[in-house]
Amino acid sequence: MSASAFVIEPPAQAAAKVIGGGLFPVRRIFCIGKNYADHVKEMGGDPKKDKPVFFTKPADAIVESGQSFPYAQGTENLHYEGELVVALKGGGKNIATPEAAAALIFGYAAGCDMTRRDLQAAAKGAGGPWDTAKAFDNSAPLGLIVPAKDFPDSKIASSRLKLSVNGEVRQDAALSSMIWSIPEIIVTLSKLFELKAGDLIFTGTPEGVGALAPGDRVEVSIGSLPPLEFSIEPKR
Ligand code: MN
What we know:
This protein is of the alpha+beta class. It is built from 6 helices and 18 strands.
C-alpha cells in the first residue's frame, strides 16, 4: 500500500525507548490482572478462586519515563499499579512450551498500569467491560527497555518491584510471587491471541495499589532495570 492511499495523515507508530538507543515499535499492549495473591486479597478477591484475567491498552497509551501528564479525565480515583513489562520480539498462536515462550522475549522494562479505580469498580459491579478503567490516554507509563540477556531469569527471580509516591514506598514485593510466571502468561495469551513482535505485556501488580493526586511524583524500580519516573501535573 503506498503512503498516498491514506485519506488522512496516518498516526505515528507508537514506540518505547530501549536502553543504549533505538526504539521498540509497540503493536499491542496486553495486561494481566490478579497475578499476585496479596493484590487479589486487597481488592476483596480470593486468589484460590479468582484466576488471572487479561485486558488490553492501546499502543499510544505509552508515556516515556521522565514525563508529566494531566490527572486523567473522567475519574476521581486514579490509581498507580507498578508492573514488570515484557517486550516481545516474536510471536505466534498456541505456543506449546514455556521454553518456546521465553525465546520470544526481547526485553523488560518497569511500567505502570494506570487505572481509573472508580470506573473499574463500576464495571465489575455491572459486569461490563474494563476499557474505560484501563485503556485511556497516558495509561501506560514505561521505562527504558533492557534486553533480556541483561535481565536474565536469575535476576527476575531475585528482584523486587518497588513503587514510591513522592519518595514514600507504597509497593514493595518480590517478582517471584507472581501467580503465573512470564512464560506461562505468554503461553496462555497465545491461546487467545496471535502474538507478534512489538507486543508488550504488563505482568500484573503486587499489593499496595493506591490513589494519586495532581502534583504527585511516581517512581517504579525493579531490580537493575532503569527506574520509571513520572509526575501527575499539578492543578492549575
Ligand atoms: Mn495491573
